[in-house]
Amino acid sequence: MHINLLFLNNWLSMLNSTLEDLVLYMHRELSPAKKAEVEDELQQNWALREKYNVLLESLNRLNKIKLQSPRMQTINAIMQYANKVTKVSS
After folding, report:
1. What is the domain extent for residue 20?
2. Which ranges of 1-90 does DSSP label H, i.e. alpha helix?
3. Residue 50: left (phi > 0), alpha (psi -120 to 50), or beta?
4. Does the residue 44 lie in any domain?
5. CA nearest 56: which of 16, 19, 13?
6. What is the per-residue DSSP string for 5-29?
7. Average pLDDT, stretch 66-76?
8. In a domain, 16, yes or no
9. From the centroid of its chain, how far is CA 20?
């Protein structure tokens, strides 16, 4: 019973911080008060900390990917489609 209450308590405390809060925290875009709240929850809630670690690892992997410019054929196809869908005013 004690383990179930501990799990429930951790789960309920996780409801204070959303995934959006974690992303904002990761990018240092939270207010000081919200930042302190998220940091406190990360220390107390292992499930939230695991979600944050997954997000952080994903960001690190994305930052390492070498981006390539699209082929000119692709750009032309997009532009042709855009010209058909919308009228461009000059």
Report:
1. 2-85
2. 2-14, 19-26, 32-44, 46-64, 72-85
3. alpha
4. yes
5. 19
6. HHHHHHHHHHTTS-HHHHHHHHTT-
7. 94
8. yes
9. 6
Spatial separation of the C-alpha atoms in residues 20 and 45, rounded to whole Å: 17
Three-class DSSP category at 88: coil
Q: What's residue 89's pLDDT? A: 62
Split into its structural domains, the chain has a count of 1
| Rounded-to-integer distance, Cα 55 and Cα 48, Å | 11
Query: Is pTM, for the whole model, over 0.85?
Result: no
Contacts for 74 with CB less than 8 Å, ≥ 6 apart = none
Structure tokens at 26: 């990761």
Residues 39 and 11 sit within 8 Å (Cβ to Cβ): no
